[in-house]
Amino acid sequence: EGKALLLNEDCSSSTIAYFINGVPPYVIMTSSRIIECQGLPLISGQNCDPYATVSLVGPARSDQRKTKVKKKTSNPQFEETFFFEVTRSSSYAKKSHFQVEEEDIEKLELKVDLWNNENLAQDVFLGETRVPVKVLRDDHIHKAWYLLQPKGNGSKSKSDDLGSLRLRLTYIEDTVLPSACYTPLCNLLLKSPDVKPISASAAHILGDICRERYEAVLPTVRLLLHHNRFVPFVSAVAALELENTQEANTIFRGNSLATRCIDDMMKIVGKNYLAVTLKPVIDEICESNKTCEIDPNKLKEGDNVEVNKENLQGYVQKVFSSITQSSSSCPPLMCDVFRSLRHLACKRFPGDPHVQYSAVSSFVFLRFFAVAVLSPHTFQLRSHHPDPEISRTLTLISKTIQTLGSWGSLSKKLSSFKETYMYDFFKSFQEDKCIEKVKKFLDEISSNVSKESMFIMGEVQKRAQGRKRLGKRNFKKRWLRVTNRELSYHKHKGKEALCIINVKNIKAVEKLDESAFNRKNMFQVVHSEKPLYVQAGNCVEASEWLEVLGQVSRCNEGRLSTFHPSNYTSGAWQCCKSPSNNEPGCKPCTTTVLANLQLDIDCDRETERIFSLLSSNDTKLQNMEDACASMAVYQGPQREQEDYSKFTIQEPKETFQTLKQLRNIMEELQRQHNIRNDTTAQYGTEFSQQERPLCVQEKDERYTLTSRHHESTTAVTALEQEPE
């Protein structure tokens, strides 16, 4: 029927920018609001410290979210909302094939587990409930009480004493707009890294008004990644955060826009990096099932603490070695971000020799590797949540990796451990050697100064520098060699270099038109001297040279935005006929796509998400406009108004200008949605469903189930406060 089906992880409308048979495509989102529980069982005669995990599970996925822990209560009030997205089918190749098959949705279910938080001990399972996604399609908004069940038990027998859970489940079908409708908003967001100050940019404003919603950052991160604009944006945002950081030992510790952006980036970009680095040792830990408990109070009868300590130390050493030897596998984009963070931290705290390491380790160890070890299923390193004993082992390893990673910045010492058993355990590690390994690893992934690494070499045809006439004699066979530091060519392999070009001096690497020299497979290296013209052996080799040279020079200062696709001869550029040899290029340079970074991102869909977020926060946008207007007129001390103090406004006039642009774009997008409502309504009847209860329903008519069709309007229902 030409439908595109999707479960969305935030309250915005997912977008697929194509139409099939003239019908606007449908996309599907669901949200799970964990409201409250009643009658949870006592633990050791006392009220528990409950929290809930919410998962969308199926044959090929297990995405999990977690609520906050509620202290000392059997009737916790959670009031938290979670969103999920269906994985694209393996046959996805382009937008016109983007369809989630019916049977995929048939196999998905939402699972909510209740746990008692035990701090250092293994958390205790309290009960679960499962709701098939296919059932939600009959009830677009569903609120009900569920009796908690034993683990893996679908029946309701013997479960009365486990307590009950109240959920609000929202199922929304939405339509999307053609790609051209999103161009203005997309362009405004992509200009964000260039806006001064960064707080006046559209992307920063979005993060500012949605700072309480963690998922709001994700579509912006995806959009910036796709267009290769993430590094300059996050660098500017990090610089702003550092301006307000007073002590080096608190650098990037909070839940700020910069840290949220980098967290999301690492999850997207670093997925394969984690698989290569951690999966083999995580699999070994989970499958060998060795006991690693070293807390004397938690040892079981017959456990030998020395054997357990030896098991744990062996696992930690394997994980630590895998991490510290993985610098060559670290994605280039992550290295670019870490390099920028290191530079900014050193600039902000020039007198602290350790901040260059803590700025990087706070992300790569604490927010990336340690979290992946603790929850391998969340990062697709394991298919399911580990059993309690393995989970305890992973917790101890994760805690150890965090501490070892912090040693590189000398911000932690053995004396910082409160637990005696952890203090004794860490004595087995040679602190100086660990510090050396951590620093070496951090240097390799974040410093411009690293050992020389060979990337590519081979035989090519090179045009002699400075020759004005065309002809075969002007081309010579040369051995071309590229490292992370220099590009050089030699008469033969192993001979001295005839010419060396510092990689930092490369300004562009682009293809050359065949007409330039009547030769195929040619490319040019534009640097501080005259361009270097090279002919590869074939088209595959030419692509390899272009990719490698583009990678090693991607962060150079002064990179060109335009180039000449032909040569300069007979007093003019042959491509544009300009007579000036210094004339700027006539063609835009190719955007460098980072190696090992193949992102399947639908920019229209992400931009629609952002539009929905902005629309659902229209009141905050208006408050921000009022704050800008007030600050621009009133020159006295800033007033501490509750609504205004939540915003970051450095330049009121610049910020107000961006807000007005956003307002105009949003009005036009909403107008386009309204126009297409009529088209969508023609097909709405085929999606109407009869109400069908899922479980024990509330008798209070305030919570009567309703079913409706969501026609192409912004989805904000999932975040509305529950009526009382």
UniProtKB/TrEMBL annotation:
Disordered, as annotated region: 703-724
Keywords, ordered alphabetically: GTPase activation, Metal-binding, Repeat, Zinc, Zinc-finger
Entry GO MF terms: GTPase activator activity; zinc ion binding
Entries under CDD domains matching the protein: C2B_RasA3 (cd04010), RasGAP_RASA2 (cd05394)
Compositionally biased residues, Basic and acidic residues: 703-712
Stretches assigned to the Ras-GAP domain: 212-406
Domain C2: residue ranges: 10-146
Source taxon at top rank: Eukaryota
InterPro entries named among the record's database cross-references: C2_dom, C2_domain_sf, PH-like_dom_sf, PH_domain, Ras_GTPase, RasGAP_CS, RasGAP_dom, Rho_GTPase_activation_prot
Protein name according to UniProt: RAS p21 protein activator 2
Source organism (scientific name): Sparus aurata
